[in-house]
Amino acid sequence: MTANKPVSLRNWHLNMTLERSGGVSLHLQLVQAVVNEVCKGRLLPGSPLPGTRKMSDDLGVNRKTVVQAFEELQAQGWIETQPRRGSFISQKLPIFTSHQAPIVEPTPFPLSLIESGLETYALSVSPVKPSRWQFSDGVPDTRLVPFDVLSRAFRRALLISARANRLAYDDARGNLSLRSAIADMLRQERGMSVSTEQVCIIRGSQMGIYLSARLLSNHTGCVVMEKLSYPPAREAFESFGVDIAYVDQDDDGMSLDALEQMCVQREISAVYTTPHHQFPTTCMLSLERRIRLLALAEQYNFIIIEDDYDHEFHFSHKPMLPLASMETAGRVIHIGSLSKILAPGLRLGYMVAPEGFIQRCGREILLIDRQGNAVTELAVAELMVNGQMKRHIRRALKVYQLRRDHAVKRVREILPMARFNVPSGGLALWLCFDEQLNMDKLQKEAKELGLSVLLGDLFSGLNDKTHALRLGYADLNETEFDQALMCLSHAIAKQEIAPT
Q1: b/e for 102-140, b at 16 or more Cβ within 10 A?
Q2: Which domains are delineated in the chain?
C-alpha cells in the first residue's frame, strides 16, 4: 500500500491561473507557481507532481509548455525526476516554514534615514594601474557592443528629447520608459512580481549598494557579508559606520548554519550577498540555502541585499531565478546592472524594492546626483523594447562561454598547480594556490613582466592571507588570455616551490 501512495497523490489539481494576455511566458508562470508553492510550505520535499500530460490538460496548455517548465525546475534544483516514477519536489530542499524557532514580531520594511552629515570618504580599492596585460575582476569586452545599433538609438533619443523639450530635469528615479522596460524584463525573464514604481535607475550597481547602505545605516543591527566578498560593497557600509559581521562560506555559498548561529547571538539588520555568481569565488548559492536564507530573513527580521551583478551570463542552464522572485514579504533589495551587458562606461543599473524604499532612494539621488543621463536611458530603453538588447546578450553569451571553456583548458595546461571549480557562469575564474607560494612576490614578479593581477587578499573582510587570484577572462580574446597566462606562469616559476 505504501508503495502505491505517491501515485495516488498525483491526482490533485495545481490550483493556479495562467495569464494568457500577460507578457510573462506560460512556462515561466508555471515555474514560478511551483516555486511559490514550495516557499509557502504547501509542497514539501518529496511531494510528487502530476504528470506533464495531466498538468497540461488541467491547465489547458500545450504539453511542451509543461515539459519546458519541468526541465527548468529540474535544472535549477527545485524538482528531481525518477525513472518510471515521475517528478518530485527535491528531497534536498529544506522544509520552508517560519515556525521552527521563536520569531521576532515582523515589522514593515525599514525606511528610516540617517539625518547626520556624511563623513568624508574615499574608496580604497582603486582601478588596476595600466599594464601591458591585466586580469580584471570580471568585466565584459566592450569590443562586443553593437556600436552601430547603440549609436542609432542614441541619435534617436537625443532628437526625440530635444524636439519634445525633454532634456530638462526629470524624475530622479530614472526615465519612465527605461524603468518600465526593466520592470517588463524582470517579470518576463526572472519571474519577479514588480511594478514600474518599484524600480529606480542608478549609475551602476555600486550606487545601489551605496544607497542601500545609506538608507539602512540608522539601524542598530550589523550587516552580514561573506568573509570573501566585494570590496567596494564592504567599504560602502563602512563609510557610514555600519558594523559588519563576516560569515563563513564554502563551495555552495554562504554558510546558513553559521548565519543562523549569528542571528541567535546578535541583531542583524541586513545580509549582503551575491548569490548568482558569488564575488569573488564564482560559486552559486544552492537552492536549499536560498530558501533557508529567506526563511531566516522572515524569522529574524532582516533585509537581504541581493547584488545580481551579472545575471545574464550563465552557461549551464537558464539563470537561477533571483531571491527577489520568491515570496519575500518585501525583504529583498534587488540590485542589477546593465553596464555588464553593454559597457561599464555607460554607468547604468537598477534597484528593485518596495515603493516606499524606492521613493527614499529618489530623494537621496536628488542630493547627490539629481538624475541620470536621460539620453542614455532613452537609448537603452529602446534597445530593450525592440529586442536588440536581448539579441546582443545571446551573442555575447556564446562568446563568453567559449572564452570560459578556453580559459579553463589553458589554466589546466599551463598552471596545473592551481585549484579551481569550473564556474557555471560569470566572467571570471577563482584560482587557489598552495600556501608555499608567496602571493605578494608573485604580484610583484608579474608586474615586472607587464601583468596586473588581483590578489585574493583584496577580497577578505578580515584581512586574512588568501592564496588565490581572481582572473577575469571575458575581456580577453584567446590570444590575449594565453599571453597574459604565460606571464603569470613565468612569475610563478620564479619561485622555487617544494613539491607537495
Answers
A1: eeeeeeeebeeebeeeeeeeeeeeeeeeebebbbbbbbb
A2: 2-89 (1.10.10.10), 133-139+390-493 (3.90.1150.10), 146-387 (3.40.640.10)
